[in-house]
Structures are given as C-alpha cells and as structure tokens.
Amino acid sequence: MEDRPITHPLVAFFEELEVPEGFKAELLRGEIVMMAGPDLVHNRIVLRVLRQIPEQRWDCLQTQDIDLLSETSEPQPDLVVLDRDAGPESGRLLPAGVVMMLVEVVSKSSVERDYGVKRSIYAAGKVPAYLIVDPIMGQCVLLTEPTGSGEDADYTVQRITKFGDPVPLNLLGVELDTSEFQRLPGVRPHSRP
Length: 193
Description:
This protein is α+β, with helices and mostly antiparallel strands. 18% of the residues lie in helices and 33% in strands.
C-alpha cells in the first residue's frame, strides 16, 4: 500500500531507487543525495542523544524518512523525536507535522546540507526544533520557532552551545548533557552556522 499518491516524477524515481548497501539516499529539494555510512563518532553522538530523551514521553526514531513533499524532499535525519505513538501506525514516510525535533550530526561532507538546505527544509516543514550536533566545531546549534516557506524558510531562534555545556531542550523537557560528545579528529574547521 502506498503512503500517499505520487505526483512528482522525481519523487516516483526516488522511491524506486535501489541504494547500494552501506549507503543512504535522501531527496532534498529535488536533488538526490547519497552518503556513505557514518563515522563511529557520529553514531556514538546519536546514541548519547537518544539515551537522554525519556522514552516514557517520546519516541526516538533512526533511519526514518520524513514527508516534506511540498519541498520535494524526503530527508532521513539522524534522529527523529515525536510524541510517543504519534503519527501513522505504519508506512515509510512520517508526516513532518507530527515531528517535535529533528537531529542531524554533521560530517565533513554534510556541513552545507545540515546548516543550509536542511535548515530551510525543516523550517518550511514547521518542525518546531532542529538540533545540529557538530563534532567538527565541538558545538550544538539548536534552532526553534520556524517561519516562512520554501527556500526563504528559516528558524528565528538560534542557540549555540559548546560541547561540555548542557543544551536546554525545553520543548522536550530535557537538558541535554554534551560532556561525552566527541570531536572528529583531523577535520578542517568551517565557518557555519
């Protein structure tokens, strides 16, 4: 059974795409982006974030595609947080409207996507909170209060916290401990956010 009718030919092509083992693919504003598997530092950060979000109140999903078809996008964030048991009972795509927070962990090849295009896509999808965890710069960037539409969408509130300091995730009622987040060694710094 289909998740919803496919109206854009690129979406139909993307959904039939066979991705090689060890890679993941995302559709971001009409562009298909393929990535190799993540670094161990990346996976450990995702695990440490996931373990701090109370499962009695929230579902934390990995490898979950998000339905942002108004943006011709089907991103697969590193972590998706939503009210426990919110959304459909089954299906590959989770509607953006039920998501409370999305988490992306930056890699050396994803800096521009995570800070740029995904920031705009998630804001356009009205996702209340977008957390960028950046092991290159040793910081977390929490974005809240989405506004606008299309490529002009953005978050109006940005809070940058260095690794080691807590990140208040007020929407979840959690203070995220970042003291165990590792940095990626030997990667050149960038100038984002």
